[in-house]
Amino acid sequence: MLIKRRLGWEMPESQATPEHVALNRRAFIGAGAGLIAGAALPGLAAAQGADPSLDLYPAKRNESFTLDRPLTDAELAANYNNFYEFGTSKDVVAASQKLVTRPWTIAIDGMVEKPFEIGIDDLVRKIPLEERLYRFRCVESWAMAVPWTGFPLKSLVALAKPLSGAKYVKLETFLNPRVATGQLQRWYPWPYTEGLTMAEATNDLALIATGIYGKPLPKQHGAPIRLVTPWKYGFKSVKSITKVSFVAERPKTFWEALQASEYGFWANVNPEVPHPRWSQASEQVLGTRERRPTLLFNGYAEQVAGLYKGLEGERLYV
């Protein structure tokens, strides 16, 4: 069963919440949701303290990554999110506050020298953080420009010490339907799983994000740790990662398992390859009336096109 989603450009600008209202509303709802969850569900924290990594933000900007457009307003980006674990609408802020992000452990396993687990607060102090400005393109044809904070995925790959037989990196999100009620919908192949080739994972653009707009990731953005692959459609950028596995066989990804005819493994951006139900030739810039032509690989062709030489027989787009 599929639930049809409203396309990104259908949201009128009048729906964007003023900053002071959004902040007050989120603080109130988030506190209330945490108290209710803590009282009703054993094992859930009623409230969390300050993020232990706050002193790392804002991180120094890496000036090698620039933009051809203004940054998207932070409040607009914070209130317009896909996070199917918490619902099929774009308004998942309140629901996502139930997610407890401390403690948070990431398992590194599969074809590595020695499997291990590492806490998020140890990880972000082991690998230096930096800020990068990236374009972000949703398969629904809306787009934004975002200042992510994080570290290259290739640094995590190096830390994992994969064996020579590892051909792919498989990333999984948490599985807890008591907290994420979207995971009660059993027609979805939970947990959310994504995958990259080793070449993609070690490309300099592939980023493990832990922050946005100079602060740690809010929960609706995939706190405390998510993937960002700016040359691919946004559904590849798995949120709230709990496991990174190095495997020999190509993993079946979440949307590919659900609807392979519309969402493939590669999901590279290409204006000339339409989604089966809409064009990808242009994109609506979130929060503006501006439509821009879609760029091949979302404008990152120079950095990533070489990854796909010899793979012309693959369904590389959408």
Descriptive overview:
- The longest helix has 22 residues, at 19-40.
- The chain has 318 residues and is α+β, with helices and mostly antiparallel strands.
- It has a single domain (51-303), classed as Oxidoreductase, molybdopterin-binding domain (Sulfite Oxidase, Chain A, domain 2), CATH 3.90.420.10.
- Strands 3, 4, 7, 8, 9, 11 and 12 form a 7-stranded mixed sheet that branches. Strands 2-1-10-5-6 form a 5-stranded mixed sheet.
- The two termini are 20 Å apart.
- It is globular.
- The protein is 19% helix and 20% strand.
- Residues 1-46 have low confidence and may be disordered.
CATH class: Alpha Beta
Main sheet? 7 strands, mixed
Report how far the terminal alpha carbons are from each other.
20 Å
Return the average pLDDT rounded to an integer.
88
Radius of gyration: 19 Å
Q: Helix tally? A: 8
CATH-wise, what's the superfamily? Answer: Oxidoreductase, molybdopterin-binding domain
